[in-house]
Amino acid sequence: MRYIFIFLLLVQLAVLSAQPALGQRVRRPTTTASPKDTVNISPPQDSLVTTAPQGDIETTINYSARDSILFEVDRKVVHLYGDAKIDYGTMELSAAYIEINYDLNTLTATTLADSAGQETGTPVFKDGAESYAAKRIAYNYKTKRGRISEVVTQQGEGYIHSEVVKKNEANEIFGLHNKYTTCNLEHPHFYISAGKIKAIPNDKIMSGPFNLVIADIPTPLGFLFGLFPTPKNKRSSGVIMPTFGESRARGFYLSNGGYYLALNDYIGTRITGDIYSLGGYKVTVDNTYIKRYAYRGNFNISYDYFKNDEADVADPNRSTNSLAGLPPTQRTAFVNWSHSPVQKPGRGRFSANVRAGSSQHNRVNFNNPNNYLTPTFNSTIQYQKNIQNTPFSYTATLSQGQNNGGFVGEGENQRPAPTTMRFTLPDLNFAMTQTSLYELFSKNVPTGRWYENFTFGYNLRARNEVSNQVAARRLGNVPVVDGTERDTTFALNLNNLDRLWRNGRKSADHNFTIGLGNYKVFRFFNLTPNVNYRETWFDNKLTYTYDDEQQAVRIDTASFGRVYEYGAGASLNTTVYGTVQFPKSKRVEAIRHTMIPSVSYGYRPNFGDENRFGFSQTTQVGLDSLTNQPIFQTLPRFNGNVPSGGLQSSLSMQINNRVEMKVRSRSDSTEAKSEKVSLIDNLNIGTSYNLAADSLRLSPINISMNTRLFKVFDVNFTSTLNPYQLNPGGTRPVNRYMLEGPGFKLARLTNANLSVRANFNPAARSTNVPPPTNLPGMLNPNDQFLPDYVDFNIPWTLNLDYTIFYTGGTQQNRGEITQNIGMQGTLNLTEKWKFGYMAGYDFTNQNISNASLDIYRDLHCWEMSIGWRPFGLMRGYNVTINARSALLRDLRLTRNRSGMNFR
Q1: Under a CB-based contact definition with an 8 Å cutoff, are residues 616 and 607 in contact?
Q2: What pTM does this model have?
Q3: How many structural domains are present in the chain?
Q4: pLDDT digits (tens, 9 = 90+) for 97-154
């Protein structure tokens, strides 16, 4: 190595023989016209390359300088002045001045003072992905150790300000007199002051005793040691610090403390718990899993012991105002599971959405009104697959539903109401999409004949519905032999599985769809005939007999029964266009009205005919108390699953309308294009007339309309008109048209609904999607990473909702009108202040239905949020000040008085 170095120096001497003696500065000329004044060892002209394949130098050292390069042969030192740069393998070093010592294998970089005395050319050291900026850097390229003075290094989301840093060959950093912070300013707003720090890149930062400093004011907050994980692109296991607070219902508490297990790259488990001073605890296990391009999901199970002594002991001297409406002491559990696959052609799709558990769990652990007020929870597990290159598909579903319970009894006798559980185990569906019969059974090419348009579709749904509630056998006021007096609900456990299965209701539904094609008639009309057939199998069929001794109806059950129905019909429709031109108008060119009238006819037999179909049975149900004559009643034979009776020979009429306007652009260009503006997106009027009915043949008239005006207002309108008059009591319609009454009235308005939504967000007028509410709610204080969704680029948003609903009255009253108006939006007063607001007013009850105000303040590396709910179940407020970094998520101050909590 030494001989190679001497050889290179001799080459340098030969080239520089006409230059000043060694030991003096070699300055580059200000111009590049003559190459004699430059150091030209190898291109480019302002750089030097030293190669040494063997010895202490492992690879090529490339170095350059803008001002000059000075060699000291006797000391084996090279000096680089002005924008000095060195490239050695993965290491890069740049500074105003760099010294290379080949004898000690060191690199030293510092700043230089300019003509004004200011320090310039701060040294920057890069080694792979690590980068450091400091006033002085010393690095040994043989041992890969370094010493850096007054340096700022970035580790994960944090920054370390150190007086002196030593770096070893493993890239580990040892700092002296340190400031650790997540603030990216040169003078941070806050930091953790620690005498000694060790940082392992992409792993963790460890420190000795430390304390928190805010605005250069030391605080007593600190600990004997510190550990800050800084993983990069990977998860790591670690302790989850709890939060503390106070609850009206459960006293002082520590919440959401535990441990996070990063089991592997696909699964992470979060185990947390709560403990309360008034007794009780809660344990939650939350698992998140993901496999790229395959599936992702979350499985959460929670167990809670809720203790409420005031509800357990009936003592009139004890106040229960703070616990009003809360359940007594109980143990509850709840499971949440969501699984979403990535859809792939030709492969099955397994999905799950499960919410099941104790009915009272969400009432004592709610964090928003939806959890508290939701009456039912439903769960679904499903597997679905389309068989490739065939019209067939199948689906297997397991579903479950439960009510939210509630309470029965008062005082010490209060207890949770029985929970009704409903299961569909299983729910199987096999379907064949509508397919051409000609293509299905023939290999010939279609020739366009009428019978080639015939299509066939089939759907089979088989299911078993079970419940832990046994409904009483009752037929209205008719006495039933062995009938229970009331419904009964039994517990779900292993001992009751056979009872659960016996009470199940099994059925198989077959639905056939037959299409007879589409045909042109009279040039402008489309005729579409259709035929349908449906059959359902049940696991029981009821037969009724009257017991004279007990004067009650006896019900006998058979093991199988079938119900079927069929019908046929045809529809005829066309499209009519009408256009009005405006040649003299400067803006409006034309208005076009599109009308699509359609008429359809459907026929369906009277499946309530007992003699012909037998889906119902007329039997004696008692004796008349005055005449002692038998009383007969027609009863269904399939637990109410009987096609609706009556002959249907119905003619349906419908007219769909669209109105558009063509306007010229406001551009001054002679080639300005026109654009279409929708005035009415859809106006639909429809009714039907049953030719086979003996009375009330004309059905109510339905009118619906929706449109979007000026790209701001969304208007929706629905109404129902009844063409018949009411009886004198105003309780039911009679077979007499409104036209036949006094005055000229076509129909009677039974109900109407008008809703108008206005979106005044200037950045979102071109879309139909309303902007999201950007501010966090006070109902979820765990969401501390507000910068992720607080958008300061939108200056303001405003959404207004107005709804009016009318319910028709009778001769005795004029009906009821319900009106509500709602408002929500955001406002950015400055770049750092953002306000969110929401309010609603009920004109009928003349009160404010709901209201909230949210305030967000950006404090650079900190943030503040304020939320206020003046009304409702969750009325209260919260104030939160916290560090923005996820690394210091527990560094926050919260004041919360909302719902059952106050902190």
Answers
A1: no
A2: 0.62
A3: 4
A4: 999 888 888 889 998 888 888 888 888 888 776 677 788 888 888 888 888 888 887 7
